[in-house]
Specification:
The chain is of the alpha/beta class and 348 residues long. It has eleven helices and 15 strands. Bound molecules: adenosine monophosphate (AMP) and magnesium ion. The site of magnesium ion has 3 residues, from loops.
Length: 348
């Protein structure tokens, strides 16, 4: 049995969240909203509880979790040292969508870090999440609430569909505001390095640290530093491709590919990062087997809509999704990172 609790960010109260906190304290699994995506969490210091998350998500055992905290003292319980750079970033971005990787204290269970000597920590900017952690009186280890490989859960409705009956409690807080996962920044090397782009951009971090920040790109055959990087992720059931090129090329490629696939009898989804359907594709709007979704030219809006849009395509039963590529600057870097992974790297 799963207890479903409705909780609104603007009206958080202890009594509503107490059953969820109790579940965490006794080693249960709770799904909760954050400002980025939903998390599926357990007491970070309870190895058995953490193992349940891997089983429920079918997450590969070598993909570590992010530990969520509500106050800075919790960070001291988890990491060996808090370097000066971490403090600066914490001042600037916490609570918020930035995850820091630091050397872990010995007593942090290997289950939460997939055996790594480091731990990923974040303080979410969501009052329900913060209250849950505070009432649970322990840091909560939580990856994104989605079956492994699928788009991250950004709506209470989605996580109920995917996890009802599999976890102890689901806290339904409606749609998450940002809709894209946190930036993961590795602070254990010589230079700060983004191992997963996210809502806080490289430019944001560089301006706080006044130094260059690297973006980690795994080389072929190299063991990735962030194990999550090696898996196909965020993938809808439909096959997916990213359409690259300048404006003219992109529209031409999309038009030709859609027409060819329609002719082959396929149902096509188009995801456009703009605000209107361009004239070149307007004729497709009336075609029954072509579903066009406008996902905004605004990077913040596009980020918030991406995962739910991918999910809708599956509900529409499309066979192939063509996603418009964008120049990878600012938040588009993170959006395109998710889009390309969802496509399994397939470009058109
Ligand atoms: P998720 O919470 O599902 O968004 O996944 C957490 C992400 O953080 C995954 O991509 C992990 O690979 C990454 N991560 C967590 N802990 C570490 C760590 N200690 N070192 C490197 N990457 C990590
Ligand atoms: Mg995830």
């Amino acid at each position: 049995m799963t207890l479903v609790i409705k909780a609104r960010e603007d009206a958080v109260d202890d009594s509503t969240l107490k059953p969820a906190a109790r579940a965490i304290r006794v080693g249960g699994v709770v799904i909760f909203p954050t400002e980025t995506v939903y998390g599926i969490g357990a007491d970070a210091f309870n190895p058995r509880a953490v193992r349940k998350i891997f089983e429920i998500k079918k997450r590969p055992a070598d993909n570590p979790l992010i530990v969520h905290i509500a106050k800075l003292e919790d960070l001291e319980k988890l990491v060996k040292t808090i370097p000066h750079e971490a403090r600066k970033l914490i001042d600037a971005f916490w609570p918020g969508p930035l995850t820091l990787i630091l050397p872990k204290k010995d007593h942090v269970p290997k289950e939460a870090t997939a055996g790594l000597p480091t731990v990923a920590v974040r303080m979410p900017a969501h009052r329900v999440a913060l209250k849950l952690i505070e009432l649970s009186e322990t840091p909560i280890a939580a990856p994104s609430a989605n079956p492994a490989g699928k788009p991250s859960g950004t709506d209470g409705r989605h996580v109920i569909e995917d996890f009802y009956g599999k976890v102890d409690v689901i806290i339904d807080g409606g749609r998450t505001s940002l809709g894209l996962e946190s930036t993961v920044l590795d602070l254990t090397g010589e230079k700060p390095r983004i191992v997963r782009p996210g809502f806080i951009t490289r430019e944001d971090i560089e301006s706080v640290l006044s130094k260059e920040v690297e973006i980690y790109v795994p080389k072929k055959n190299e063991k990735p530093v962030s194990p999550g990087m090696k898996y196909r992720h965020y993938a809808p059931d439909a096959e997916m491709m990213v359409v690259t090129g300048d404006e003219r090329e992109k529209l031409k490629k999309m038009k030709n590919a859609v027409e060819k696939m329609l002719w082959e009898g396929k149902k096509i989804g188009l995801i456009l990062f703009r605000d209107d359907i361009p004239a070149e594709l307007a004729h497709l709007e009336r075609v029954e087997n072509c579903v066009i979704k406008i996902c905004s030219s605004d990077e913040r809006l596009a980020a918030s809509k991406l995962f739910s849009t991918l999910r809708e395509f599956d509900e529409d039963g499309v066979d192939t999704i063509l996603a418009e590529g964008k120049e990878e600057r600012g938040l588009w870097l993170a959006i395109m990172n998710r889009v390309k992974k969802a496509a399994g790297g397939k470009l058109l």
